[in-house]
């Protein structure tokens, strides 16, 4: 993409109402614009990151055997009355009357609706297990929306729902999602720790939050340090036994302030104890017959009898992750995107737009990097060098290539790695080969 | 995908409330489920078609130089009050009060919001032209939703907005979209005719609807037959002169009942006169300063003076197209998907699941067709052959491969082309080569 033909409205000033880094940087880097409290437009640069995250989340769900569908944003209140949630949900639910005075709502979650869909079609244990998911905009009417996309009102979420004949099978579905989440977050370039969550009245041990560590995290995390060092499961057979991947993590202490047990924590060797702030980016939850019982979702079992189906839900905050990744990966100059979710791979800075030689060198780099799959953003504007450098650091592409008349005289361009600041001078061809190699593995 | 692991709830009976073919077939083929009046869940098969259409629409927008972003579904009423549309819109607008009693609405369209975004950032003619688009769910609270996704309440639309310094430049943006639409619909496998639309109080000649012909179309179309035969522009230079592609179409008569002029129509040679029913799938519209003037969207011109920006909007009904394509392409047995938007490329029918030889032949075909990029759906269920044939015809994949013990004895499988019903017996390897070739061009 040529910057002159793009829409990248960066801001010089930090907006006063943005208090955390991700909110400030997303506004300044032209990724989002606030339209109302807690409601944002995703400008082109922000949307690219959002879609890359969404794609990775989708690929890992598919790999785990979950099947994608899409439920609507607007739901009838009727289903929520069946489960008793219409009254229970409180003012965070955006309640709507349509033109015929029917009670509707903008879905904050979809357990009720997916259970209705399930019971409409599935009658036999032979069709189980089923893992269905969708990636859809949700709405929660937060009293005080804040922190940009981290606690907005309209947000994009991936939510998966499992349906199983009994708790033992449901555990297998739960494990699939546990492993899929580990792989998902690893591919997103972040370290997410599975932390035991509060099961509430449902009870049991099958509920985890996935948190990433960042200073601005909303909750305190207490955990065994080794959790941070474990490699993701990677390619596994999702129809096989996944318990090794889950068990070795669950064997290590990890809790938020909500579920923290000081005594258990103290039992960890002192040098392995870790306390930090965490941001929740995923939550998986087995809830048994909480929705299927009141809604009568039953299947015929192998024993010829009807069984109430056992369910779980599994969420990932897709839009929240954009902010969370920035919280975990930025510096005073701007964002530092992991390669897998960077809006563009490489920024090309033309230090003298209009200069015949510089323009030609940039054009040829631009075509070569496009062909090499590095998805370059070419700053072909007439802005001063300082403006170009600052903007490129702000938007945080993994690599920058600076092309100027002085370097070209010596046959070199400058390649900079955004994360480390490391720079090296290379011939244009060597730069292309270097960058192509860097992206080959993504 | 293996059918046993998918979620494809086909219905035996035609639902009584579905009156047109696309609505009936989408329900029967397990593509959608109605959740409330005019509000649908997209089941896995339907979602795959929706996403394929969306992807083609996106690619052609990008090719034309439009830049993608994403505006939220929920908007503040304030912007709509600025343009006077809040009162004008009527009961089709879904009006919402949030928990702080602020007036909000579920966006039925986005001229007001995009104009606000534009005026927040763009100050100079040097940043023009701008073509911005998004693909987002909209809501129109139809009094009587009907015809399934063809006239639903929650629907997916691609809407592009152009911003130009004057009418002459705006015409160039309009032409870009005109050409992009021709290419888009051609890639979707349908013939869409640009028909002059009613400009209303705005006046001028820059407004067209794109309609496809189908018996169930909502409006009468009168046009010159040659319009149906013209090849799409294909690869063009969008920064160059596009008028030849537009002018040669506009030179031929085409109107709906709304804009029809019987005398002009009669001037067409009799054998070239055509009358048919049409479904609107796109609408492009130049409206000048209708939104930019009341909202004060101005830029500094090359003359050093402020100019009110001239705008246009360009819509494609993405979810509606799923139904419209079925209306244009089905038979008594089910859907007949064009290759470019088919949910899967090839259906594999195992006539004797459980038979060792049949299973092995199907598995090997399945892997080979996956590797060949034919996106197979393998019916590995224990259902009877008749059920499998009927279901495969119903969902309408372009090709079917039937594998049975009798054929295998002779070393052949049967390949069927869904659209023509033509069948041929081929060795499994020849079938793979044939199908791979068929999909190589998509």
UniProtKB/TrEMBL annotation, chains A, B:
Residue ranges the record marks as coiled coil: none
GO molecular function annotations of the record: ATP binding; proline-tRNA ligase activity
Aminoacyl-transfer RNA synthetases class-II family profile domain: residues covered: 38-338
One GO term describing the cellular component: cytosol
Localization: Cytoplasm
Top-level taxon of the source organism: Bacteria
EC number(s) given by UniProt: 6.1.1.15
CDD domains reported for this sequence: ProRS_anticodon_short, ProRS_core_prok
Xref: PROSITE patterns: AA_TRNA_LIGASE_II
Record keywords: Aminoacyl-tRNA synthetase, ATP-binding, Cytoplasm, Ligase, Nucleotide-binding, Protein biosynthesis
InterPro entries: aa-tRNA-synt_IIb, aa-tRNA-synth_II, aa-tRNA-synth_II/BPL/LPL, Anticodon-bd, Anticodon-bd_dom_sf, Pro-tRNA-ligase_IIa, Pro-tRNA-synth_IIa_bac-type, Pro-tRNA_synthetase
Enzyme class: ligase
Predominant location category: cytoplasm
Reactions performed catalytically: tRNA(Pro) + L-proline + ATP = L-prolyl-tRNA(Pro) + AMP + diphosphate
Pfam families named in the record: HGTP_anticodon, tRNA-synt_2b
GO terms under biological process: prolyl-tRNA aminoacylation
Family note: Belongs to the class-II aminoacyl-tRNA synthetase family. ProS type 2 subfamily.
Subunit comment: Homodimer.
Protein function: Catalyzes the attachment of proline to tRNA(Pro) in a two-step reaction: proline is first activated by ATP to form Pro-AMP and then transferred to the acceptor end of tRNA(Pro).
The name this protein goes by in its record: Proline--tRNA ligase
């Amino acid at each position: 993409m040529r910057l002159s033909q793009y829409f990248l409205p960066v801001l010089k000033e930090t907006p006063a109402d943005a208090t955390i880094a991700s909110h400030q940087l997303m506004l300044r880097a032209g990724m989002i614009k606030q339209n109302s409290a807690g409601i944002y437009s995703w400008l082109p640069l922000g949307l690219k990151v959002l879609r890359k995250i969404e794609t990775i989340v989708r690929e890992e769900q598919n790999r785990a055997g979950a099947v994608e569908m899409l439920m609507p944003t607007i739901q009838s209140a009727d289903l929520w009355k069946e489960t008793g949630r219409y009254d229970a949900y409180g003012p965070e639910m955006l309640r709507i009357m349509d033109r015929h005075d029917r009670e509707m709502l903008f879905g904050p979650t979809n357990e009720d609706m997916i259970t209705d869909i399930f019971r409409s079609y599935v009658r036999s244990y032979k069709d189980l297990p089923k893992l269905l998911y969708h990636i859809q905009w949700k709405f929660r009417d937060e009293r005080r929306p804040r922190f940009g996309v981290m606690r907005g009102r309209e947000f994009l979420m991936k939510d998966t729902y499992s349906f199983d004949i009994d708790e033992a099978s449901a555990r297998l579905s739960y494990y699939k999602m546990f492993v899929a989440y580990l792989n998902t977050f690893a591919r997103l370039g972040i370290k997410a720790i599975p932390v035991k969550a509060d099961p509430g009245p449902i009870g049991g041990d099958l509920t985890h939050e996935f948190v990433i560590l960042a200073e601005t995290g909303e909750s305190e995390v207490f955990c065994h340090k080794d959790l941070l060092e474990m490699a993701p499961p990677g390619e596994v057979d999702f129809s096989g036994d996944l318990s090794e991947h889950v068990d070795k993590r669950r064997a290590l202490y990890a809790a938020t302030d909500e579920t923290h047990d000081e005594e258990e924590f103290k039992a960890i060797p002192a040098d392995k104890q870790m306390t930090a702030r965490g941001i929740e980016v995923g939550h998986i939850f087995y809830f048994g017959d909480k929705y299927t019982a009141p809604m009568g979702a039953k299947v015929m079992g192998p024993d010829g009898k009807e069984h109430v189906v056992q369910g779980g839900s599994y969420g990932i905050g897709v839009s929240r992750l954009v902010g969370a990744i920035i919280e975990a990966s930025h510096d005073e100059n701007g964002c530092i995107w992991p390669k897998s979710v960077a809006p563009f791979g490489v920024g090309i800075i033309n230090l003298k737009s209009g200069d015949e030689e510089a323009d030609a060198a940039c054009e040829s780099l631009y075509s070569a990097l496009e062909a090499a799959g590095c998805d370059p953003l070419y700053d072909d504007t007439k802005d001063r060098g300082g403006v170009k450098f600052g903007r490129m650091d702000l938007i945080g592409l993994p690599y920058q290539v600076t092309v100027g008349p002085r370097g070209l005289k010596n046959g070199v361009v400058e390649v900079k790695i955004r994360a480390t600041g490391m720079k090296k001078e290379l011939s244009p061809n060597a730069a292309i080969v270097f960058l192509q190699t860097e992206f080959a593995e993504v």
